[in-house]
Amino acid sequence: MMMSNRSVSIYKGMVIQAVLLSLFLVSCKWRNNVTQYDYGKTPLVEINGDVLYAEDLNQVLPLGYSDADSAVFAERYIKNWVQDQLFYQNAIRNIPDTKDIDRLVENYRRSLFEHEYQRRLIEQTFSSEITDDEIESFYNENSGLFALDESLIKGLYLKISNKAHDLSSIRNLYTKTDDESFEEIEKYSIRNAARCEFFYENWHTVAEIEAQLPPMENSLETLLLNGRSFEFKDEDYIYLLNVSEYAAKGDIEPLEHARARIRGLLINSNEVSYMRKIKEDLYQAAIERNRIIFHYKDKK
Questions:
Q1: How do residues 14-28 score in pLDDT, each as one tens digit?
Q2: What are the structural domains of the chain?
């Protein structure tokens, strides 16, 4: 069996501890002489047929440790492993009635099988395609579900050094939304802006934008009640904000902002319906083939 230089150095650091533990276990007559070891692996510690191998230890050794630190880690890991095995074996001896544990294990095993089977069914045969019409229909029929928890805005945000040239031109441009103005704003921003963000097509929360502005006496939420274009200043920068659309907290969330969440809700609902149908089909098929014996019905 070939071992890397790192593994060899680590192995040297831990083998002494392994030998000491093995001698201790043998002296206490815990050693099982008929244990079948995994082929190609190097056993370090053994308790009643449970074996810790050098290869298992090497897999958990942290990278970058010195030989001394690796030896300390190995000693601690081996000791913890021995303690866990002893405690587990002692627990088995002291809990003779395992019916409840066996039931829990079986229930967990069943849930794992069912979960994995459901995952494979959905992956292989379930269609997660949701049309725009379905999304819009759900949105219109369930508007009460879409009250905004926080306000949203669309617009343009600029952060520009107060020493930038021709500030007057950008002040005249940033509130305009035609294509030609957009192009001029973009050109100016490339040369002068510390930050430029066009978000006319995407909603942002008011809090997200306000976090990029200097401290103000009034909150941006308050300012939005009376205006849509703003200029703020601090010692180094001017901040220009033009808001094209505003949806206040408590308003119905815009469809385009809610679209992804609605899609997720519909997919989840369809998955539930799909699995319910699978189970109902299995049930009906079993009824038709007389595979189910209803003992309680025979007593009526």
A1: 444 444 444 344 333
A2: 5-94 (no CATH), 149-247 (3.10.50)
